[in-house]
Prior knowledge:
Layout: E1 2-10, H1 49-61, E2 65-66, E3 69-70, E4 73-76, E5 86-89, E6 96-102, E7 107-117, E8 121-125, E9 128-132, E10 139-145, H2 152-168, E11 178-184, E12 190-196, H3 198-217, E13 225-230, E14 235-241, H4 245-248, E15 250-252, E16 259-260, H5 272-280, H6 287-294, H7 298-307, H8 313-327, H9 336-347, H10 354-361, H11 375-388, H12 391-398, H13 403-414, H14 418-432
Parallel strand pairs: 12-13
Antiparallel strand pairs: 1-10, 1-11, 2-6, 3-16, 4-5, 4-15, 6-7, 7-10, 8-9, 11-12, 13-14
Helix pairs in contact: 2-3, 5-6, 8-9, 8-10, 11-14, 13-14
Bound molecules: zinc ion.
Amino acid sequence: MKIGLEVHVALPTKSKLFCSCSMEESEYPNLNICPICMGFPGSKPMLNETAVKSALGIANALHCDVNRKISFVRKVYFYPDLPKCYQITQMDDSIGREGYLELENKKIRIRRVQIEEDPAQIVRQGMLTLLDFNRSGTPLVEIVTEPDINTEEELREFIANLRSILYYLGVDINREMKADLNISLAETRVEVKNVTGIKSLIEATRFEVERQSEAIKNNEKIERETRGYNEKSRVTESMREKETDEEYGYIYESDLGTFDISEMEYVEPVYITNVSDELARGSGVNPKTIKEITMLNRDALAMIYKFKEKYSMKSILHGIQRFEKYSNKSMKTEDAVKIERIIRLVDEGKDISREAAEKIIAGEEVNIQYSNVTKMEIEALIEKFVAENPGILEEYKRNKKTINLIIKEISYKNNMHPKDVSDAANAVLNRIS
Ligand SMILES: [Zn+2]
């Protein structure tokens, strides 16, 4: 199976790509519009520098060869959402080409990174077809991969890593990601257009793989075509025969001309996989845990850097996880004081109950004092527990982690230090087994 993707992402700008209309969400249709983004004859586009800088940061983060000089083309076609009859996009002089995105075990080659404008939005109401030009001229970056994705896991990993890279470059990843999919199981490539959102992307892939395998099994011919994804019925449907690039008729966009971007500054990327590996080194912590916490949370990453000399990595991650679990939200910088209180307690070896964590999150004082007991007293409690639960010894022989169950039972209920309980439990169980 070979999958190639064309991912479209909106660039973080205040105004549109070729005019000064606002990019802010509008309550009403056709509010943020002007002759340029409505494609009136005689209107001339002006290029938004912020959009170019942002796209340049993305091309650089994807290890692309960056073109010093960029230009634009008109992709000519007729559709109601595009009254000027062409979309301004890039071809040969696109901002980046021949890069890659790294997965755990392979690289997915990036063919091209290009800037383009979004057309208007078509709204269907009964018999009516309405047009909303608020979206027209939204700056997009299109990231085109080679067909290097071979499994659903790789597709998921690609999307996750791409989202993380984009997030750290300041792209709003909460806006839905749109993608075109190219899937081929045999010779013929089928395109699935305009899939919105990651869930639909995975589902459309699954459906198409199944459809094509079935056709191959039955010796049917797979048509080279463009299909659409129907979110309701979760199937792909034939749309039209696939156009080739030649059929579009690209023309050089002379209203914009050529731009030299060799001196342009851009944001450096953060590769969270590498960062996590580095932070985990020598700490006894699985880098995947760090990656999970920080992938889409720069505040969490900043907190780890802030505390890493002061507390163990294990305690820091544990503290952040506790906070997120009990507060039911991802952590933000303003939670630093509360999280540090949790981290400090964890670092001191104190086991924090849900109740204590919730108190800290609510800003209340928590004083965790352990009962003053001797080793003998703890061992006596454990012996009693083992006598009451005879199965536990066999369980322990099979799996040493059973000890955690005893720690939970004894230390929480009797307010004893978990480390003391753990030592005593090991001593008792080894003695009697
Ligand atoms: Zn405009």
